[in-house]
From TrEMBL:
Homodimer. Only the dimer is catalytically active, as the active sites are constructed of residues from both monomers. It catalyses: L-ornithine + H(+) = putrescine + CO2. InterPro entries: Ala_racemase/Decarboxylase_C (IPR009006), De-COase2_C (IPR022643), De-COase2_CS (IPR022657), De-COase2_N (IPR022644), De-COase2_pyr-phos_BS (IPR022653), Orn/DAP/Arg_de-COase (IPR000183), Orn_de-COase (IPR002433), PLP-binding_barrel (IPR029066). The modification N6-(pyridoxal phosphate)lysine is found at residue 75. This is ornithine decarboxylase.
Length: 412
C-alpha cells in the first residue's frame, strides 16, 4: 500500500513533472552528497522534502485516528509539493487567508475540502471565500458574526471555544482565540439572530502540545457546547473540529488514544457526526531536511564559530516563534571528502550564526561539531514545521528563494 500511495503522490499536482529522487539505504547522506557535489558553485541553502515520509505519516494518521478527517493546516508549511501530496492522499485543508485558499484551489482541490479556520477574517478575504465557495469557517466574537452575515451569509460556522487547558503546549493559542464558557450561549444566540447556521464546534489545544489529556478536556467542553445549542433549539450540530497540536513522534500514539477515548466517552453513537482535525506540524515537521552551507569561520581558542547561509530571520525563525530546539549534522564534503559525515572525528564546542548582521541571528551555541571549513555543509533534520513559512527577507537573505528538492525514502 506504500507503493500505491507513493504512485498517487508522484502523480499529484505540485509534484507531477518535477524530479523526484529515490533515496538509497544511506538516504539523505547520499542524496545530499549528490546535490552538493553538483552544486559546487552554487552553495545556496536548500530543503529536501521526503514524500515517502508524507505517505507514512498519512498511513500512521489513518491507522491511529480512523474516524478523524485531517484538514492540513497550510500555515505550517505551504510548499506546493507537500500540499499536492497531501491532497492526493485524501487530506483536506485548513486555510487562514485568501492566499492560502488560492494555493489549495490552484492544486485542483474543491472548495468543500477547505475550512477557513481563522476566527477573525479580513473583509476582503471573506468576500473572496464567498466568491469561490469556501463555505465553512470558525468564529469566536459577535463582530465576526456581523461580518459573516454581511459578506458571506451562506457560510456554515463552527464556534471556536477556548481549550480548557493549553498549559502543556509550546505555543498556546488560548490567549488569542476561543470563546470562554460564559460567551458561548450569547454567541450562539447572536448567530441565530443573524440567521447563520452554526454546525459545530472547534478548538485548538495549542501547537506542540505535550499533555495529551488536554484533548479530553477540550472534547468534554465541546460536548457542553453541543448541549447548549440543543437547549437553544438550534439544528443538531454535526461537526467537531479538534484542531491541531499533534506531533509525529512517540507522543502521537498517546494523543490518538486520548482523542479516541474522549470521543467514545462524550460523543458515543452521535448520529451523523463528522470529526475533523487541523494537523500542521504532524505532517510537515519530519518530512523536510534543510541543508545550509558554511560561509564563514572564526577560531577563538578551543571555540569554533561558523556562519551559515540561513538563520533566525530565515528558516530558523522557528527558534524564536515556535520555541523550537534544532540540531544539525555536519557534511564535510569539502574538507573531509573521505569521511564527510565526520564519524569518529574530534569535536569542538561550536557556535553557529545565521548570515544577517544581527547578533540575535545565532542558530546554535555550545553545539559539538567536528572541525569544519568554509564551503562544508550543516544539515538540519525535521525542519518542516513553522520554518520557511515564517521566514523574512531581512538583509536581503530571502527565505522564499530557498529551493526544495523532492525525494522519497525506499522502505525496502
Ligand atoms: N489550526 C489552527 C487554527 C491553528 O492556529 C494552528 C496553528 O497555529 C493549526 C491548526 C496547526 O497546529 P499544529 O501545527 O499544532 O498541528
Amino acid at each position: 500500500s506504500y507503493s500505491r500511495s507513493l504512485q498517487t503522490v508522484l502523480g499529484a499536482p505540485g509534484v507531477r513533472g518535477k524530479r523526484v529522487t529515490a533515496l538509497s539505504k544511506d538516504g539523505f547522506t547520499d542524496f545530499i552528497q549528490s546535490i552538493v557535489t553538483k552544486k559546487q558553485d552554487v552553495k545556496d541553502p536548500f530543503y529536501v522534502l521526503d514524500l515517502g515520509e508524507v505517505v507514512s505519516l498519512m498511513d500512521k494518521w489513518t491507522r491511529s485516528l480512523p474516524t478523524v478527517r485531517p484538514f492540513y493546516a497550510v500555515k505550517c508549511n505551504p510548499e506546493p509539493a507537500l500540499l499536492g501530496a497531501l491532497a492526493a492522499l485524501g487530506s483536506n485543508f485548513d486555510c487562514a487567508s485568501r492566499a492560502e485558499i488560492e494555493s489549495v484551489l490552484a492544486l485542483g482541490v474543491s472548495p468543500d475540502r477547505i475550512v477557513y479556520a481563522n476566527p477573525c477574517k479580513a473583509e476582503s478575504h471573506l468576500k473572496y471565500a464567498a466568491s469561490v465557495g469556501v463555505n465553512l469557517t470558525t468564529f469566536d466574537s459577535r463582530d465576526e458574526v456581523d461580518k459573516i452575515r454581511k459578506w458571506h451569509p451562506k457560510c456554515v460556522l463552527l464556534i471556536r471555544v477556548k481549550a480548557p487547558d493549553d498549559s502543556g503546549a509550546r505555543c498556546p493559542l488560548g490567549p488569542k482565540y476561543g470563546a470562554l464558557p460564559e460567551e458561548v450561549t450569547p454567541l450562539l444566540q447572536a448567530a441565530q439572530a443573524a440567521r447563520l447556521n452554526v454546525t459545530g464546534v472547534s478548538f485548538h489545544i495549542g501547537s506542540g502540545a505535550t499533555h495529551s489529556r488536554a484533548y479530553r478536556g477540550a472534547i468534554a467542553a465541546a460536548k457542553s457546547v453541543f448541549e447548549a445549542a440543543s437547549r437553544l433549539g438550534m439544528p443538531r450540530m454535526r461537526v467537531l473540529n479538534i484542531g491541531g497540536g499533534f506531533t509525529a513522534g512517540s507522543q502521537f500514539g498517546e494523543a490518538a488514544s486520548a482523542v479516541n477515548s474522549a470521543l467514545q466517552a462524550y460523543f458515543p453513537n452521535e448520529p451523523g457526526l463528522t470529526v475533523i482535525a487541523e494537523p500542521g506540524r504532524f505532517f510537515a515537521e519530519s518530512a523536510f531536511t534543510l541543508a545550509t552551507n558554511i560561509i564563514g569561520k572564526r577560531v577563538r581558542g578551543e571555540l569554533r564559530e561558523y556562519w551559515i547561509n540561513d538563520g533566525i530571520y530565515g528558516s530558523m525563525n522557528c527558534i524564536l516563534y515556535d520555541h523550537a530546539t534544532i540540531t544539525c549534522t555536519p557534511f564535510a564534503c569539502t574538507s573531509n571528502r573521505a569521511n564527510p559525515t565526520c564519524r569518529g572525528a574530534r569535536t569542538y564546542r561550536s557556535t553557529v550564526f545565521g548570515p544577517t548582521c544581527d547578533a540575535l541571528d545565532t542558530v546554535l551555541t555550545g553545539h559539538l561539531l567536528p572541525e569544519l571549513e568554509v564551503s562544508d555543509w550543516l544539515v538540519f533534520p525535521k525542519m518542516g514545521a513553522y520554518t520557511a513559512a515564517a521566514g523574512s527577507n531581512f538583509n536581503g537573505f530571502s527565505t522564499s528563494a530557498i529551493s526544495t528538492h523532492l525525494a522519497y525514502s525506499n522502505p525496502c
